[in-house]
Design a protein that fits this description.
Chain lengths: 413, 243
């Protein structure tokens, strides 16, 4: 039998056994479709989570004072703890590996900013130069705050794009302009963007020393943020504990008082998040593989039944001159055609849905963004199903092809 | 052409062998038309299946046209069947999803004959059995007699040297049986060796040689003058209608 004859025969068989062909095709296509959609959804979740936390340096630690909850060393509870510039020195001693550090001071109320006849209420934050890296602030124009600004208490401001848009939209650039901030005039030295929330772009950064001076801050600071370099999570946890102990001693509160000092070790959190994301990915893979397995079992089942119900036909064909090899080849080629074509259809449908979802989903949805699937994985999964379909067809086909023709002819259909 | 020597075949019922053929010797020459008769369970169909290389045997030697059949691999046996033998079964054994002409084409397809050529040959065979007009019909759309004629066309299409017919008229009425036998006789006249298994004596009477088999043994082997009866054309118009 020539290959052309064989292909014609396969097509004719598939066309005449529509229900069986459709069921086999459906189980394969569905398996691949679900795998693609699940993997893309897993990737979307993963991207969303990563994006949500990509805003700040992954190995940073935030230290923010609060109110005590328990009485300690003669002090009653509900005492407000206030950090000062001295605590920065304490930090430098306690955490020598801190490679970037910034104090943060925010005036108690949002300072009104204005330029000519435009004005707005923005968040003002007094920071140090390292804050740019800790907050992953991207400069759009001009420069960030530098050490000289801090030392000389310069009245300079780095403004978010939203601020620039609101106050300086008529100008080509806000750089060099003098804006009013509270009762003082500040020179705009840079504009920035930030991948975080909208609120971050509505921020005005000024040197922390200037902020303390201009907004009656004295030597007070509101929070400290620092990064811990290349240390492990265990090491950074130990350092943070040591810092907490020292601050507790200095400010006279209990080291176990959770209210007095809030510490957020992003490094530790990030590692936990990584584990959760890995878990999600593995879970998605598990479900995907389960779906594929179900597809394999479905294809195998149908092939098994198909071969069994065709035993008599195989007997007839053998009586007419079909070799056992040609019978096996016929069954396998049928399986190959169905699984490849339907696997491809499932792949295309899955990718189409993912692309469609990408278009209609808003890009700034918190925990789900840019679902995507590695097309190689989809193709590999299709290949697995094709091979499984072939294997599922091979054994029963070989058995059927080996039965002597007269037994096959006697088989019940 | 055919030589069977000491052929023995048993089936197993659980762990007990049930002998079906016991030490059968048979020689059939080219061009013969042999009827094998016997009651049900006598071993006649098993004998035919062994002759058609559809079943194997336990002991003895079967030589077909000088080739010892036992030595053939499965694939070679398939090629041999395709080249040498045409089958006509009682149950027709047509592929249900293929049209009449596609069924007839199948052995030619396995022989590797190009499409156009085999279609022509299949149509010629269908013409011979008078079924050109039914060529595109599926077996389910054909009557029993028509199915058997398609099966005969399939056996004839590859111009085999040996035609094996197992109860070819078993499922047919007497008029259709007559037509089927005429076709087989015609093929024999054209040179094909014919072996017909039957339990009907009028079918056996149409063959040149009669082999009777009982309990797995050949107990009678006679040459005879075949009685050939032409099937009369149907005379439906002259049959009186019941008022």
């Amino acid at each position: 039998m020539t290959w052309l004859d064989r292909w014609r025969e396969i097509m004719a068989t598939l066309a005449r056994r529509k229900l069986r062909t459709a069921l086999t095709a459906l189980s394969v296509a569905w398996g691949i479709f679900m795998l693609v959609v699940l993997l893309a959804a897993g990737q979307g979740l993963s991207n969303g989570a990563e994006n949500a936390f990509a805003d700040d340096a992954a190995n940073s630690v935030y230290v923010q004072p609060g109110r005590t909850r328990i009485a300690h060393a003669g002090h009653g509870p509900r005492r407000r703890i206030q950090l000062t510039n001295e605590d920065l020195d304490l930090l430098a001693k306690a955490v020598p590996v801190a490679d970037r550090t910034s104090a943060r001071f925010r005036p108690r109320t949002d300072a009104r900013a204005s330029f000519r006849d435009r004005q707005g209420d923005f968040q003002v934050s007094g920071v140090q130069p390292d804050h740019q890296f800790l907050e992953k602030t991207t400069m759009e124009e001009g420069r960030y705050i530098n050490d000289a600004d801090i030392a000389e208490r310069r009245k300079v401001a780095v403004i978010g794009l939203a601020v620039a848009q609101r106050l300086f939209r008529d100008l080509e650039t806000p750089i060099g302009q003098m804006m009013n901030l509270g009762k003082n005039r500040f020179r705009v030295i840079g504009t920035f963007s930030d991948t975080g929330e909208q609120r971050e772009q509505e921020t005005i950064y000024i040197p922390v020393t200037t902020a303390q001076l201009s907004f009656a801050g004295g030597n007070r600071i509101d929070s400290i943020v620092f990064s811990v370099g290349e240390t492990s999570v265990e090491e950074s946890n130990a350092l943070v504990e040591d810092l907490q102990r020292r601050l507790a001693e200095k400010h006279s509160f209990s080291p176990v008082d959770k209210g007095a000092l809030r510490v957020f070790n992003r490094h530790e959190f990030y590692q936990k998040l990584g584990k959760v994301l890995w878990g999600i990915r593995m879970f998605v893979w598990l479900i995907g593989l389960g779906t594929i397995m179900a597809g394999v079992v479905g294809v195998g089942n149908i092939m098994l039944i198909a071969v069994k119900e065709r035993t008599r036909e195989f007997g007839m064909r053998k009586a007419l001159g079909a070799t056992p090899g040609s019978i096996v080849a016929m069954v396998l080629e049928e399986a190959l055609v169905i699984t490849t074509v339907s696997g491809y259809v499932g792949l295309v449908a899955g990718v189409a849905l993912v692309e469609f979802a990408k278009r209609i989903l808003p890009t700034d949805t918190g925990f789900f963004r840019e679902p995507d699937v590695n097309i190689g994985v989809g193709i590999a999964a299709t290949a697995v199903l094709v091979v499984a379909g072939l294997a599922a067809g091979f054994w029963p086909a070989r058995r059927a092809a080996r039965i002597n023709p007269i037994e096959a002819l006697r088989a019940e259909t | 052409m055919i030589s069977l020597q000491g052929i023995t075949k048993s089936y197993w019922l659980g762990d007990r062998p049930v002998p079906v053929l016991r030490n059968v010797d048979l020689t059939v020459n080219e061009g013969e038309m042999v009827a094998i008769m016997g009651s049900s369970g006598s071993g006649k169909s098993t004998l035919l299946n062994i002759l058609g290389i559809l079943d194997d045997y336990d002991e003895g030697a079967y030589t077909l046209d000088g080739t010892l059949i036992r030595d053939l691999s499965e694939s070679k046996a398939a090629v041999y069947r395709n080249k040498f033998i045409g089958f006509v079964f009682q149950a027709f054994n047509l592929l249900p999803l293929k049209s009449a002409v596609e069924n007839v084409e199948l052995p030619l397809q396995y022989r590797g004959m190009p499409r156009g050529e085999r279609h022509e040959a299949a149509m010629a065979a269908l013409e011979k059995v008078g079924l050109t007009s039914r060529a595109e019909h599926l077996p389910s759309e054909l009557s029993g007699g028509e199915k058997q004629r398609v099966a005969i066309a399939r056996a004839l299409a590859s111009k085999p040297r040996l035609i094996l017919a197992d109860e070819p008229t078993g499922a047919l009425d007497s008029r259709t049986s007559g037509q089927v036998m005429e076709l087989l006789e015609q093929a024999n006249d054209e040179g094909a060796t014919m072996i017909v298994v039957t339990h009907e004596s009028d079918i056996a009477a149409r063959c040149k040689r009669l082999v009777r088999i009982r309990d797995g043994l050949i107990w009678q082997d006679t040459r005879q003058t075949p009685i050939r009866i032409k099937v009369p054309e149907p005379v439906a118009e002259s049959v009186p209608q019941i008022p």
